[in-house]
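Continuing from the previous page of notes. For each protein in this section, the sequence appears first, followed by its structure tokens. Read the first protein now.
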Amino acid sequence: MISGCVQKPYCGDGICDPAQEGCDCIDCINTPLCQQQQETPTQEKQETKQEYVCGNGKCEPGEWCNTETLVTPCPEDCPRCPSHIFVEPFRCMPSDKCQKISNTFYVKDGAKIYAKLYNLGEISTTTIEAHYRCYDAKTKERAFIDTIVKPYKGAKIVELGFDNNDDEIKLYAKGVKGDDTAYTWKFELPELEEEYEINCKVEFRTKSPIDKPELEFNVKFLKS
């Protein structure tokens, strides 16, 4: 009598053994029982995607302030983007009285230098104050300490500040009248003793976010 080994069933042997193999085995997929358990296309589970609705009184993802564009997609439910002050570099005018080369302004009598400030946010800024210091490039002494009143070496600042020569200002939200301003200096050189240069720094102080709180530049006074 010849005896041999009996091979146990296994998944993939082409025979479905319900006692040991389930419907996830390739041998059982086409059996009546497993076919009944398979879902038809109309029974397939659909992934539920949560949709956020603006106006439901809840500040939800995708609705709050976009910190790159400074735009709030759903201001009905979320706080507006905070103020953000953008400061342009100083420029000068008119061209026949002022020229800028690198970071130095070459000015004659009547020249103006100015920097534009913009509020890019959706709410008004806090108060913006401007503070400046100037020093004689050669002697290093402080220049224009008492502006608009006391000339320095024959040069005089006759305009200094924001609108109406104010030392401080608030800017309204972007898109509203009053969302920008200019910080301006105007020079008169009635009795310029000699051509000279000053080094200046302007600091804008505010509790609102600001990209360039300090600006440094030089002014070279020229005889007409």
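Done with the first. The second protein uses the same format. Note its length before scrolling.
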Amino acid sequence: MEHSLDMIFSDIHSVSLLMDEWIILEIKKEFPEVRIHHLTYISAIGPIGISNVDLIIKVGKTKQAVNKVITNLRAHGLVVVNHYHSLKFIRINLTEHGEALFESICSSRLKLQNIYSDILGINRYNHLLVALSRLKSFHKQ
């Protein structure tokens, strides 16, 4: 049983990494500056933007780590940072280039979702989604 649990954790982690790698390969042609860790940040910021505090919570990283990535995203022209009331509260929004990247990420995820559905069949794919959702809910409690 212990070996089986190790395999589950290893397989879930591997599939997660492979999904990100597949998406990066899909979007690298149009966005060569993008790195794999940028996916999480661009997706979290989204088309409506996000505060720096909410972004830190959403990506689960330290303030310093988030600031480093945001500085990198700004250098590539993917985000703009607006300061409100103080330097402690900032709002991060995608630029036009960042929004195009966000749309490309969403499109690639949808394409991968369709591929997975074809591989597993619609019923197994839906069962997989329910199972993963239940596991995620368990860990959020």
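What the second structure shows: The longest helix spans residues 2-27. The CA atoms of residues 40 and 98 lie 13 Å apart. We return to this in next week's lecture.
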